[in-house]
Amino acid sequence: MPLVAGVDTSTQSCKIVVRDAETGALVRSGSAKHPDGTEVDPQHWWDAFQEAAAAAGGLADVAALSVGGQQHGMVTLDADGRVIRDALLWNDTRSAPSAEALIAELGDGNRAAGAQAWADAVGSVLVASLTITKLRWLRDNEPENAARVAAVALPHDWLSWRIAGYGPAGDPTAPLGPQLDKLFTDRSDASGTGYYDASTGLYRPDLLERALGRVDVVLPRVVDVAEAGAVAHPTVAGSAVDHSTGSGSGCLIGPGAGDNAGASLGLGMTPGDIAISIGTSGVVSAVAPKRTADGSGAINGFADATGNALMLAVTLNAARVLDAAREVLDVDFDGLAELALQAPPGSDGLVLVPYLEGERTPNRPDATGTLHGIRLATSTRPHLARAYIEGMLCGLADGLDALRAQGVSVERVMLIGGAAQSPAVQRIAPQVFGLPIGIPEPGEYVADGAARQAAWVLAVADDPDAGAPAWSTTIATTLDADPKPVIREQYGAVRDLS
Ligand SMILES: Nc1ncnc2c1ncn2[C@@H]1O[C@H](COP(=O)(O)OP(=O)(O)O)[C@@H](O)[C@H]1O
Ligand SMILES: O=C(CO)[C@@H](O)[C@H](O)COP(=O)(O)O
C-alpha cells in the first residue's frame, strides 16, 4: 500500500504523521519542538522538520506528502533565496498600527468604510496577524530589508519549497538553489495573506503595493486543491518512490494548507460542523459554500482546502493561558485540571479576561489580562485555576456567537488542539458553550488533513477525477450539553472593562 505523510509546521512544534493512503491507518509519527517567540528564524522549522521526520522513521517510503502550517507568518526572501529577517508570526502584534493605517487608507479616512472594503476585497478586516500588515510594518520600520525583498512566502510555502530541494544559494541542503518561481502555496493559506481574494482565486497586487510600496516580488503560485506543487528532493525525503506502487520515482508534494484548513480536512468537516481548536491560537471555524465579508472583523473569511470557504474566529489567548496558569500555580497539566474542577462553575465570581498577549478577536492588540472579583473567598488555587480555563473558553464562545451572527448553522461541535486533552477543559467547555461537544480521538488533525490531501494528490495523479479519500474520523467521546449561563454572564459583564 502506498504511504503518505502529513506535516504540521505549527507555532510550537513540527508534527508528522505517516498514513496508509487508502485506509488512512496511522503507520508512524514523530514531532519536534519549535522555539518560543513571535519572530522566528525559519531555519528552526527546517531543523524541526528533519528531526520530526527522523522521529517518524524517515520519509523514504512515502509516495506523497503535504505540509499544513501556522498561517500568516511573513517569510521574506532575497534574490538568493536567503531569509532576510526572522519571520514575523501570526501572533506578533507589532504591525497593529500598520493594520489601522491600511484600513484608514482604503476607506479614505473612514475606518468603518475601510474595514468593510478590506472584508469585501479579501474576506477579512485587517488585524496584525495578517501578512500584509507585516509587510507594511517592514516597509516603514526596516526599509533596507523591505528593499531587498524578492519573494514573500508563508511558513508552509517556504517549508514545501525547501523539501523540494530549493533554498539559499550555496546551501548544501538546497541542491536546486534559489529558484523563487518554484515557490507554491494553496488557496487556504493564501487567503490569510490580505493580498489574495479566495472568491476569485487571484492575488491583489494593488493591495500588496499599498503595503510594500511595490509589486515586483514573487508570490507563490497557488496550486489547485489536489495538484502536486513539486516533487520532494531525494536528499530530503530519502530514496525516490513511485507514487502508485510505493517503489520508484518521486515523492509528490501536495499544495499544503493553512493549519485550520488542514484540520478541517483532517476532521472531514462539512457545513454545519464547527471545530474549536485550543492550540497556541484559539480557533472556532466552520466550512461554508461561500465566504462572507464581515466588516466587524470578528470573522475571517478564508478558504478551506477543498474549494469551500472557511470562516474563522481566532483568539491569541488559548492553550498558553493554561500554560500560564500552570506556571502561576506550579502544577502540571493534571494538577491544573484537578484544581479547576474543585471550584464551582463561575468560580464564585472570579473572572479572568485572558488578554495575556493582547487580543485579536476582539481586536485589542495592546490589551492585558485582568482578574475581576478577587475576594478572600476566591483567593484560592482552585478558583484561580478555574477562572483561567473559563476565561479562555469564554473568548472562544464569543467567537462562536460571531459565527452564528454570520448565519453559520451549528449542528456538530468538535474540540481539538493540545489543550482539548485537559479533563477540565472537556468538563467546562459544555458548560460554557451550552452545547454537546464531540472529542475526536486524540490526534494531530492538521497533520492528518495534510496526509489526507497527500493521498488525494496521489489519487489524482492516477485518475484526474479522483476525489479526496474517504478517511473517517472517530468521535471518541460526546460530552452532553451542561449549560451554566453564569459563566458567560459574569464574563460579558467585565470583558470590555479590561
Ligand atoms: N493536557 C493538557 N492540558 C492543557 N494544555 C495542554 C495539554 N496538552 C497539551 N497542552 C497545551 O497545548 C499546546 C500545544 O497545542 P498544539 O495544538 O500542538 O499547538 P500549536 O498547534 O499551536 O503548536 C501547548 O501550549 C500545551 O501546553
Ligand atoms: O492565525 C491563525 C489563524 O488565522 C492561527 O490559527 C495560526 O494559524 C496558528 O495556529 P496554531 O499554531 O495555534 O495551531
TrEMBL record:
<dbReference type="InterPro" id="IPR006000">
    <property type="entry name" value="Xylulokinase"/>
</dbReference>
<dbReference type="InterPro" id="IPR018485">
    <property type="entry name" value="FGGY_C"/>
</dbReference>
<dbReference type="Pfam" id="PF02782">
    <property type="entry name" value="FGGY_C"/>
</dbReference>
<keyword id="KW-0547">Nucleotide-binding</keyword>
<dbReference type="Pfam" id="PF00370">
    <property type="entry name" value="FGGY_N"/>
</dbReference>
<keyword id="KW-0418">Kinase</keyword>
<keyword id="KW-0119">Carbohydrate metabolism</keyword>
<feature type="domain" description="Carbohydrate kinase FGGY N-terminal">
    <location>
        <begin position="4"/>
        <end position="266"/>
    </location>
</feature>
<comment type="similarity">
    <text>Belongs to the FGGY kinase family.</text>
</comment>
<dbReference type="InterPro" id="IPR000577">
    <property type="entry name" value="Carb_kinase_FGGY"/>
</dbReference>
<keyword id="KW-0067">ATP-binding</keyword>
<dbReference type="GO" id="GO:0005998">
    <property type="term" value="P:xylulose catabolic process"/>
</dbReference>
<feature type="site" description="Important for activity">
    <location>
        <position position="8"/>
    </location>
</feature>
<dbReference type="InterPro" id="IPR050406">
    <property type="entry name" value="FGGY_Carb_Kinase"/>
</dbReference>
<dbReference type="GO" id="GO:0005524">
    <property type="term" value="F:ATP binding"/>
</dbReference>
<feature type="domain" description="Carbohydrate kinase FGGY C-terminal">
    <location>
        <begin position="275"/>
        <end position="456"/>
    </location>
</feature>
<feature type="binding site">
    <location>
        <begin position="71"/>
        <end position="72"/>
    </location>
    <ligand>
        <name>substrate</name>
    </ligand>
</feature>
<dbReference type="GO" id="GO:0042732">
    <property type="term" value="P:D-xylose metabolic process"/>
</dbReference>
<keyword id="KW-0808">Transferase</keyword>
<dbReference type="InterPro" id="IPR018483">
    <property type="entry name" value="Carb_kinase_FGGY_CS"/>
</dbReference>
<dbReference type="InterPro" id="IPR018484">
    <property type="entry name" value="FGGY_N"/>
</dbReference>
<protein>
    <recommendedName>
        <fullName>Xylulose kinase</fullName>
        <ecNumber>2.7.1.17</ecNumber>
    </recommendedName>
</protein>
<comment type="function">
    <text>Catalyzes the phosphorylation of D-xylulose to D-xylulose 5-phosphate.</text>
</comment>
<feature type="active site" description="Proton acceptor">
    <location>
        <position position="259"/>
    </location>
</feature>
<keyword id="KW-0859">Xylose metabolism</keyword>
<dbReference type="InterPro" id="IPR043129">
    <property type="entry name" value="ATPase_NBD"/>
</dbReference>
<dbReference type="GO" id="GO:0004856">
    <property type="term" value="F:D-xylulokinase activity"/>
</dbReference>
